[in-house]
Amino acid sequence: MRRPGRRGCLGILLAVLLLLLFLKMCVRIVPGDGPEQRAVPERPAAAEAGSLLIPVEGVPPSALTDTFTQARAGGVRPHDAIDIMAARGRAVLAAADGRIEKLFTSADGGLTIYERSPDGRRIYYYAHLDGYAPGLAEGQMVKRGQKIATVGSTGNADPAAPHLHFAVNEIRPGEPWYGGRAINPYPLLARPIR
Questions:
Q1: Torsion of CA 128, 180, 56, 106, to 10 degrees
Q2: Cα–Cα–Cα angle for 163, 105, 85, nearest 5°?
Q3: What are 77-135's pLDDT values in tens digits?
Q4: Which domain of life, per UniProt (predicted)?
Q5: 3-state secondary structure of 125
């Protein structure tokens, strides 16, 4: 059997370092629901730290990483969102009260939800979903903490790394659901606004 040469060892070391860097930049993975899992409160107390509820059940603010400005599409554009890593099938919760503006499927986002705030000034975008909550429909009013979907890896997400892509856009009243200006959701989820 041939041993790997210096180049092979360097390649393996580089791959391990890149994997560790990726894991450090992501959030911790929250285990999926199963018979051996203990119950998670409907509204985790830790999630109340920011002005929005963390939209994945059981994820505390300390597990979030700010990926808003990270490069995407080969460095062509900023992320303009955060990724919340969690097991496939974990409950996705409404981050705030609002109205389901659009249920949509796209090549990049996969199965998605666009929720408009009651004052019409924000759109909350949930992407890479595995499925919608039973009965969810466009025009439906939802409450903060209500289950609206499950975590997945649809669209251009890595099937081995299910997560919720969560974005917030400021929008003018009457502006379409796909418009607006991206604002960083991380401080809205991780700490209170002062």
A1: -10
A2: 5
A3: 676 889 999 999 999 999 999 999 999 999 988 999 999 999 999 999 999 999 999 99
A4: Bacteria
A5: strand
- Structure letter (DSSP) for residue 57: T
Alpha-carbon 13 to chain mean position:
30
Query: Up-side HSE of residue 28: CA atoms within 13 Å toward CB?
Result: 8
Contact of 53 with 43, CB cutoff 8 Å:
yes
Record the tokens describing residue 102, joined without a space.
Answer: 């659009």
Work out the number of other CB atoms within 10 angstroms of the CB of residue 39: 6
Residue 47 has a pLDDT of 33
Per the CB < 8 A criterion, the answer to whether 92 and 112 are in contact is no
- Cβ-based neighbour number of residue 114 at 10 Å: 23
Question: d(Cα 138, Cα 154) in Å, to the nearest integer?
Answer: 20
Q: What would the pLDDT profile of 48-68 be if each residue is shown by its tens digit? A: 335 899 999 999 888 888 877
Residue with tokens 């974990």: 90
